[in-house]
Fold this protein.
Amino acid sequence: MPVHSRRQSILKGLGKAKHMRRRREVPAGERPRISACIIAKDEARCIGRCLDSIKDYVTEIIVVDTGSTDDTVAIAESKGAKVHHFPWQDSFALARNEALKHATCEWVLVIDCDETLLPGSGEALIRLLQKQKEQVGLRPVIHSKKGVFLLSARVFRREGVEYRYRLHEQPTFEGKQVAAIEAPQVNLGHDGDVVEIRDQFGKIARNLRIAKLDLEDNPEDPHAMLNHAWSLHEEDVRSVEAIRIIEEVRQKFNMKSEHTTYLLLKGYRAQGNEEAAQRALVETLEFGCRHRYFLFERAKYFVSKDEYAQAVPLLDEAMSMPEENGGHPQELSFMITGLRGVAREGVLDLKGAQADYELARRSKPNDARILDGLSRVSKKMKILADARG
């Protein structure tokens, strides 16, 4: 069926639904005016649910379509979105800026078609914006099958903001990245990073091509260099070139960050080079980036070498930190607790090991590793008690 005919069919079936339907109850006070800005191409699979999730909380929805051949435009229009057409130019920043150009409200919410505003987040967003006075953005939390992650600023005042970089574009204000605070009350669901979906639309190959162009535009820019390395990494996690670029950025720009360390750990381990992975890990920890995950990974290495006394203080430090928004925080806490049980058992702190195993068992009552640990510790404690007579 031709695209035009399909579009008419969809419009007939869905009806010209008004974007500003009866709103859900929101907090009292002056309601902030929000433009939702979206870029799209062949997103019929998911754009409808995205717009449904935000329409009760925003003043207008701006969709910039960069050349869809499916029903994306028809669905967006049926939901009340203002659709603008813009030719794709191998730059997400240009498309984002086109959307900002059409926004008329004080505030902007940037959301992708494969994302949804999760229940409760719309009301939370309005409450937060009612309190905001400065040009400070909000960083929502994104939930996907890969984990839970913090984003760059997705909500900000429209005036003066411009996106930069073709790939993994960043909002800037007066030449600098928009300052943003964490907004854990605002949560987005995301499914576009599922491998099958990415492969279906050729996103990995597309991103690599665009990253190369970005690097040509900004040859000495660490963000562009890391975008290129990340794209190489996605195509082949063992990429020698990706690892070389990441190491260069870490040394040249002193960026021993969570992001670069995570990429190196993944890359070196895919190559079977655990010593290089540990070298990057130690360098990052000594630099002061003492993330719970990195402390856990370093401790795990010591445990694998039966160097339990080296592992215990690292795990103590990790246990003392609050759960973060990124990654799988509860799963990481379970792993840290269980590993400290192993390390304490290794230094014969049996009561401490028993306490850690019991704590871990609260999260996963039937985990075989934890149950085995409790059984071993119980037997050792009995042997010691019998020896003392």
